[in-house]
Amino acid sequence: MSVTVGVHALVRRAHEERVLAILREHGTLSRAQIAARSGLSRTTLSEITGDLLGRGAIVKVTTDAHRRAGSGRPAELLALDPRSGQFLGVDLGHSRVRAVVTDAAHEIIASGVTPYAATTSLPARIRAGLALIDGLGREQGINLSALQGIGVGVTGPYPAGTARADVRAAFTETLRAPVIVDNNTRFAALAEAGMTDARDVLYIRLSAGIGGGLIVGGRLVEGAGGAAGEFGHVPAVPGGAPCRCGKRGCLETVAAIGPALAVAGVHSLDELAARRDEPGVAAALERIGDAVGRVLAAAALVLDPELIVIGGDLSRAAPVIVDRAAGVVAVERVPPGHDVAGAGRRDGGEPRPVVRAARLGDDDGARGAVAALYRQSPLLAGYSNLDGSAA
Amino acid sequence: MSVTVGVHALVRRAHEERVLAILREHGTLSRAQIAARSGLSRTTLSEITGDLLGRGAIVKVTTDAHRRAGSGRPAELLALDPRSGQFLGVDLGHSRVRAVVTDAAHEIIASGVTPYAATTSLPARIRAGLALIDGLGREQGINLSALQGIGVGVTGPYPAGTARADVRAAFTETLRAPVIVDNNTRFAALAEAGMTDARDVLYIRLSAGIGGGLIVGGRLVEGAGGAAGEFGHVPAVPGGAPCRCGKRGCLETVAAIGPALAVAGVHSLDELAARRDEPGVAAALERIGDAVGRVLAAAALVLDPELIVIGGDLSRAAPVIVDRAAGVVAVERVPPGHDVAGAGRRDGGEPRPVVRAARLGDDDGARGAVAALYRQSPLLAGYSNLDGSAA
């Protein structure tokens, strides 16, 4: 059930965005003021504002202060409705669903989370997500009847498949808006990359599993099979522990939450965070950081990124992993200024790449799903992996 | 000395390309026939053909067979001049300069090579290149006075620098045509990728040094510092031999020609090729192939390419390196159909990536330099690393 939008609709959407951007900047304006600033004809503008009013995206504001001189008629002014949800981002994660709702100004106006067991089936995850969203609307007073789009992140690196179709069908049917579906970690990469100017970014997430995303030349990358950015199954320990993928010694057997807790001798992330400075625990975390660093360093030497971002629950609980990984990447970097091949020379700027912790928290996937909906991001140019894409 | 071309010139170039494409397809046509097929006005067409005739790119063909019925005047027909060089590709490599000249139909009409010592200075390399090109013109009867563009590949991963400016200045001054300069291995990657439909390709070259190039999402990638695709300094042997970059155990300390000859106990690539099936030599080559495979496998797990191409003198002399590397990549691949993350499934097509030897020979760099000039390649969309780019 692919959503297709014609040229006319795209032009209409662009006009709509222009009107919303003007109201975002100026707050409250009359139709005449919007017409002057947008360059749109009164007829076109009237259609656009009528539709936005009908969808609840904007509201009429009438005040005495704006009463026209010499006229008894109040000037009808228009403004964004801060209580109308425009975009919904959902992250159907490993052990919880997260949702964020943004308004026409792209500000988050509601968000929530519902935990579930990691063994929860996909239909049950979808039901939990829809219940969470229903609750957001009722309890936080958000109007969800005029959504412009819904982005849903799901676990798993690979595109297509019936699972994604089921997700799309369920959200479209219940919420009556176009739905896009993609890997939730890639959405998180998009959200993190959107916070920087860097055009070449590696993002890795250390959580129940390990995933990631690549921004190359200012674009989110898919890979030939939709699995670009999957750092989890890069060999990290020769002949290491068996991995659920069938190989041995993958990074996921070392730096996912389960093996990290086991090697540190603790039972939960909270316990890990509380005891992370004890010598035995610290040494285990350093070894994990070194393994993450080796995998990232090899990728960085090939991709030459400006920035490496490490996110996920595990790195939040144990920041030393980020520090150690940064150290390994720095050591493996070809020394700046070193003339490796005889005819060139790296310019003498900052050492590259910078390695740092993610700035966003656990709602990064839901935020990225919303960012993907905006479609304004040049990061998504040429990106075709969004199931049910409206562009 | 950057070469800039305005909008008018770009439109003119597009018209010119259309006329050349029509002549390429139909062989010989009258001006009226070209006008009908191109949709260009007679005035515009007259300017274009006048200029192409003046530059020697096309010629007038007059035959009795085309004599107009009822008229004594022979019809003047136009055709591509197969002896006029349009594009020049030069590869100022480690130990030789290669050049290829293509005509308006993008066919190679002349090529040559001049060896020099690896210690040759850049000015001496440039002089050797210009002498080679001069010889091509005189000895092979090629008209080089109407070149549309010159692409020059140089060693070294890093962009900018005075070396590139010197190269550009020397070729522009002598040959009076726009010059672009980039890394010669990246040009080779462009040439190899241009021979396939794959949109995600890793290219590695095993030669005196190790270089490579990445095609990601149908685009040649630069990296933040212009060093994307540099596989040579990825760690391949923990604590291995010192590398000229200052680190230890880089792939270049294992799989460049020098160390490969040393570990195989031979003195030249010819001797290596002759003795490659002897057990001791074969075992050494297999270990080299395994190291190359480990580095490529890690990159492939992160980038998810469709195709990996292995080129360079060493892999041509020892094809077992390609076979072994392909084996390692196949083993490290996440098994197709394996549901690694719970909600997705890799589609059940061919195992990916395919690993194979390069199809082009030692002239790959020069061919890629010409391919970059054509500018028709979507592979170059968004690619800004070509010094002196005319686009």
From TrEMBL, chains A, B:
Family label: Belongs to the ROK (NagC/XylR) family.
SUPFAM superfamilies according to UniProt: Actin-like ATPase domain, Winged helix' DNA-binding domain
One Pfam family per UniProt: ROK
InterPro entries, A to Z: ATPase_NBD, ROK, ROK_cs, WH-like_DNA-bd_sf, WH_DNA-bd_sf
PROSITE patterns to which the protein is assigned, alphabetical: ROK
Name under which the protein is recorded: Transcriptional regulator
